[in-house]
Hints:
Layout: H1 12-20, E1 25-28, H2 30-36, E2 46-48, H3 52-61, E3 65-70, E4 75-80, E5 83-89, E6 91-96, E7 101-105, H4 109-114, E8 124-125, E9 131-132, H5 138-143, H6 152-158, H7 161-173, H8 182-191, H9 200-211, H10 217-225, H11 229-232, H12 240-250, H13 257-263, H14 267-271, H15 277-291, H16 296-319, H17 325-336, H18 351-367, H19 374-380
Parallel strand pairs: 2-5
Antiparallel strand pairs: 1-2, 1-8, 3-4, 4-5, 6-7, 8-9
Helix pairs in contact: 6-8, 7-9, 7-10, 9-13, 12-16, 13-15, 15-16, 16-17
Residues 29-30, 45, 116-117, 121-122, 159, 161-162, 165 line the site of adenosine-5'-triphosphate.
Amino acid sequence: MNDLGFDKHPGYAVLKGLADAGHQAFAVGGPVRNALMGLPIDDLDIATSAEPTVVMKWAEAHGFKAVPTGTDHGTITVVSGHEGIEVTTFRRDVATDGRRAVVAFSDSIEEDARRRDFTMNALYVDVQGVLHDPLNGMPDLKARRVRFIDDPAQRIREDYLRILRFFRFFAWYGDPGLGIDADGLSACAELADGLETLSKERVGTELLKLLNAPDPSQAVASMEQSGVLMRVLPAASANLLPVLVHLESENGIVANPLRRLAALGDYDGAAHLRISKKQIIKLHNMETGLLEMVSPKQAGYRFGLETGRDIVLLQSAALETPLDKAAFSDVDDGARSELPLRASDLPWLSGPALGVALKQAEADWIASGLSLSKDALIAKSPK
Ligand code: ATP
Ligand code: MG
């Protein structure tokens, strides 16, 4: 286990405990894939032959807090070292309808592997650090080939979210030179209309994960060409994204999935994805900043430091101009600025008339690039 470093993870105690109790227990999925690729891991997900009630009993008998977080699909969250470790019993699908599956527990690692999505996600490591690869996923992982397990079309009909997962995993772990897997891509194109049966929430979450990849441009371009993008964001275009990603990496700016979502240009569609209220407001502000081409100072004042900077980036991408670093300090200036006029500066006005005058003064001040002085604003106000 030393080479993958799992023995230092809080989840290792759970893995070892289950194995010592005589159950089959493996680290599986994301952490195994990432560790094998030399990438950082966060959660250690565990698959086991022990049924959920057995896992619960084992955890409680050994001083771990255990919460049945996903009883219908067999997941118990065991708390170890302040981290929640998801322990899921081996499963096989009994019935699927494209959105959710009815599962039965199994004691076969191979059955468990078969219901997973991509070959590189069906790798298991036991407590001794030995790799178990029941479906021969290792060559794909080494080649960074994101490939469906078994027939892509059949797997997609079981769960249409796998279409978006296919593009997400390609964006994160695929080899851009090799390109996206052709069989997978044509099945996604053929079955894209099934995406409409999914909840907006699942689609939104998945899309943001995809857009958070270091460079999702190629994946999103493939989504556009295959007709997948228009099923989730009907008015979106993939054109701006590579320009934005290039600007981000040239200037050492951290990826931001929401900024990238804004770059796709379908603000209405995105707002319907049931992302959070805060995210919708930010998206709307980015849209305003881009469409009105507000100045950096104005962007900072109206939308704050972070969104102001996002707007500068989106504008540079749209105009295909290099990023003007001075624009960022203008955004900062704007974010720190305050309207130099207060109610007490207009003592002859009161009530609604005062409110209207202050609003107008603010609009004039913004239009002046935050440059009009207090005296100039008083002079412009109604007498
Ligand atoms: P990440 O690092 O992004 O969390 P992950 O591989 O852990 O990557 P998850 O979405 O957390 O991805 O899923 C964990 C594992 O469960 C996957 O590796 C895969 O084996 C399986 N899985 C998850 N969702 C599906 C699905 N819709 N269809 C089939 N298998 C799935
Ligand atoms: Mg995961």
